[in-house]
Design brief:
The complex is a heterodimer of chains A (378) and B (99). Chain A is 29% helix and 26% strand. Chain A has helices at 15-26, 58-78, 96-111, 121-127, 150-163, 208-214, 280-293, 338-355, and strands spanning 3-5, 8-11, 31-34, 50-51, 89-93, 117-119, 138-142, 146-147, 167-169, 174-180, 183-189, 194-196, 200-202, 222-233, 241-244, 251-254, 260-265, 301-312, 319-322, 328-332. Chain B is mainly alpha-helical and 99 residues long. Helices cover 42% and strands 7% of the residues of chain B. Classes of the chains: A alpha/beta (378), B mainly alpha (99). Chain A binds chain B through residues 37-41, 45, 151, 155, 159, 162, 170, 230-232, 278, 283-285, 287-292, 297-306, and chain B through 29-30, 33, 35-36, 39-40, 45-47, 49, 78-80, 83-94, 96. The site of flavin-adenine dinucleotide (FAD) has 43 residues of chain A, from helix 1, strand 14, strand 18 and helix 8.
C-alpha cells in the first residue's frame, strides 16, 4: 500500500488513455496511467486498426483530418514505426439508398477538403483486383484514409509517457475515487494504493460508466460485442479497407506491415455486454462474407478469432470533456472508432484539461449534450 | 566465433521470427507478462498460436524477473486450433443454409 502524487491521473491504458497521457506529459505534467490489467487489454488490443475521415458528423470529420495528419507523422513523434499506411477506404454500395447516403456524406466531407469520390463499380474493381462486382453500384473512395498498428501506437505513446517523467501502472484496478466537496482528490486501487492528483481522466473505454459511478457521475456508455478474425500473412493483394454495409456485410483490410488479413462485422441485432467470448456463428459467417466479396481469398487460412467491445454512446459519437466533478474529465464512448480518434482527441483533451479550451472546439462531444445528431457512417 | 552461435540470437518464436535478445530487452524495459510481450513482439500471434514459444518466453520472464512460471498468466488460446482456409469455413455456413 503506497501513496503517490501526480499532476494528472489517467484511468485506462488503451489508446485513449495512452495518447491523452502522452500529450498531457508533453505539456509538462507528471502523468500516472493506471491500467487494471495491462496496456491494450480492453478494446484497443482487439481492434482492426482502420483509420478514416469518411464520417457524416462535421466535428468527427475535423477531428479525423487532424488525427490522420498526426498518424502520418507519428513515427517521428514517438520514435517508433507504427505501421501507418494510406491504403484508403472503399465503402461499397449495393443499393440506391446506400449510394445516395454516400453521395450525401461526400458532400459534407468535401466541405472540409477531404479527397473523396463516388466511383463506379468498374473503378472499384480497379482499386480492388478480384472484387466480386455482382450487384455493385459503386463505392465511396477516399485514398487518404488508412491503417496503423494499434499495439505499436499505444505502446509507443506509453513509452513516451515514461520518457516524459510519467509512470504506467499495470494491475492497477481503480476501485474508489475520493472527492473533497465537488473536487476530485485521489484514486484508490484494489491493492490499496492511493494516487493523489487534482486531475483525473476517465479513459476506461467500455467500462467508463463504472468509473463514472465511482465519482457519482452518470456516463452513458454501453458495450456491445464485436468479433474479429485474422488470417495468415500472404503477399500484398488488397490496398484499402473494404467496407460492405449490407446487413450481412463485413469490413476487412490487409495489414500493410505483415500481410495478414484482419476483419470484422457488426452483428444484427447487436449483442449487448462486455463479453469477449468468440462465437461459432462468426467464425463461419465472416469467412463466407469475405470470400463472397473477394473470392480469391478462399484458400487463405484463418489463424485466430476473438471478440471485444464497441463502447457505444447514445448517439455514436465520443463523450469528451469536463464533468460536474471538478478536475474529473472523461474521454470515452468512442463507439467503435477510438483507435483512429486517439491521437487527435488525445492532444485536444490535453489542451482542454490544461488550458480550459482546445484548438478544435469539442463542446459538441460534451457529456451534457442532447443525444440527437447520430453518426450515419458507423 | 560466429555471432549466430550466441544464445541471444536464438529464435524463440519461429512464426514471427523473434529472438531471445528481443524478448529479454522487452522484459528489461518493464514488461513482465506474456500478454504484454505478445502485444509488443507478436509472440503467440503466428501460425502456431503460441504452442512453440510461450513456455520459452515464460522461462525468460522467470530468469529476468524471478516471477515463477507457475504464477504467470498464459494468454487465452484463440480458435481455430489449426489454421483453416476461409473458403472451407465459409462453405460450412452455406451447407447449413442449404439443408
Ligand atoms: C473487433 C473490433 C474492431 C475495431 N476496429 C476499429 C477500427 O478499425 N478503427 C478504430 O478506430 N476503432 C476500432 N475499434 C474500436 C476501438 O477498439 C475502440 O474504440 C478503442 O480501442 C477504445 O479505446 P479506449 O482507450 O477508450 O478503451 P480501451 O482500449 O478498452 O481501454 C480502456 C482500458 O481501461 C481499463 N480499465 C477498465 N476498468 C478499469 C479500472 N477500474 N481501473 C483501471 N483500468 C481500467 C481496461 O482494462 C482497458 O485497458 C474496434 C473495436 C473492436 C472490438
Amino acid at each position: 500500500m503506497s501513496k503517490k502524487s501526480a499532476d494528472a491521473i489517467v484511468i485506462g491504458g488503451g489508446i485513449i488513455g495512452a495518447a491523452t497521457g502522452y500529450y498531457l506529459a508533453k505539456r509538462g505534467l507528471k502523468v500516472f496511467i493506471l491500467e487494471r490489467k495491462f496496456p491494450c487489454a480492453g478494446s484497443t488490443g482487439r481492434c482492426i486498426g482502420g483509420i478514416r475521415a469518411q464520417f457524416t458528423h462535421d466535428l468527427t470529420i475535423r477531428v479525423m483530418l487532424k488525427s490522420i495528419k498526426m498518424f502520418q507523422e507519428l513515427h517521428e513523434e514517438l520514435g517508433t514505426d507504427v505501421e501507418w499506411y494510406a491504403g484508403g477506404y472503399l465503402f461499397l454500395a449495393f443499393d440506391e439508398a446506400r449510394k445516395k447516403s454516400f453521395e450525401q456524406a461526400i458532400e459534407i466531407q468535401r466541405r472540409y477538403g477531404l479527397k473523396v469520390d463516388f466511383i463506379s463499380a468498374d473503378d472499384c474493381g480497379r482499386i480492388v483486383p478480384g472484387l466480386n462486382r455482382e450487384g455493385l453500384l459503386g463505392g465511396a473512395w477516399c485514398p487518404t484514409d488508412g491503417q496503423a498498428n494499434p499495439f505499436k501506437v499505444t505502446y509507443g505513446y506509453l513509452e513516451g509517457v515514461k520518457r516524459l517523467n510519467g509512470q504506467v501502472f499495470v494491475n492497477a484496478d481503480v476501485k474508489k475515487i475520493n472527492l473533497s466537496g465537488t473536487r476530485v482528490v485521489s484514486v484508490e486501487t484494489a491493492n490499496g494504493d492511493e494516487f493523489f492528483s487534482p486531475i483525473v481522466l476517465n479513459a476506461a473505454g467500455p467500462w467508463a460508466s463504472e468509473i463514472g459511478k465511482l465519482a457519482g457521475i452518470e456516463i452513458p456508455v454501453k458495450p456491445d460485442r464485436h468479433e474479429a478474425l485474422v488470417t495468415e500473412a500472404i503477399e500484398r493483394c488488397l490496398e484499402p479497407m473494404l467496407v460492405d454495409y449490407r446487413a450481412d456485410g463485413c469490413y476487412f483490410v490487409q495489414h500493410y506491415g505483415t500481410g495478414h488479413f484482419i476483419g470484422c462485422y457488426t452483428p444484427v441485432p447487436i449483442v449487448p455486454g462486455d463479453s469477449v467470448d468468440a462465437s461459432d456463428e462468426f467464425i463461419t459467417e465472416m469467412p463466407r462474407r469475405m470470400v463472397r466479396l473477394l473470392p480469391k481469398l478462399a484458400s487463405v487460412k484463418v489463424l485466430r478469432h476473438w471478440a471485444g467491445s464497441y463502447e457505444m454512446s447514445p448517439d455514436g459519437n465520443p463523450i469528451c470533456g469536463k464533468t460536474p466533478v471538478e478536475g474529473f474529465y472523461v474521454s470515452a464512448g468512442m463507439s467503435g472508432h477510438g483507435f483512429m480518434f486517439g491521437p487527435a482527441l488525445g492532444e485536444l483533451m490535453a489542451e482542454l484539461i490544461t488550458t480550459g479550451e482546445s484548438s478544435i472546439d469539442l463542446s459538441e462531444f460534451r457529456l451534457d449534450r442532447e443525444w440527437s445528431k447520430a453518426e450515419a457512417m458507423k | 566465433m560466429s555471432s549466430k552461435k550466441r544464445s541471444g540470437f536464438r529464435v524463440v518464436c519461429r512464426c514471427e521470427e523473434v529472438t531471445e535478445d528481443e524478448v529479454r530487452a522487452v522484459i528489461r524495459n518493464g514488461y513482465h507478462s506474456l500478454e504484454e510481450i505478445k502485444r509488443i513482439l507478436r509472440t503467440g500471434m503466428g501460425h502456431c498460436g503460441g504452442r512453440g514459444c510461450l513456455k520459452v518466453i515464460a522461462r525468460l520472464i522467470e530468469e529476468e524477473t524471478g516471477i515463477p512460471i507457475a504464477l504467470q498468466k498464459f494468454p487465452s488460446s484463440r480458435p481455430p486450433l489449426k489454421p483453416i482456409p476461409l473458403g472451407q469455413l465459409g462453405s460450412y455456413r452455406n451447407e447449413q443454409e442449404e439443408r
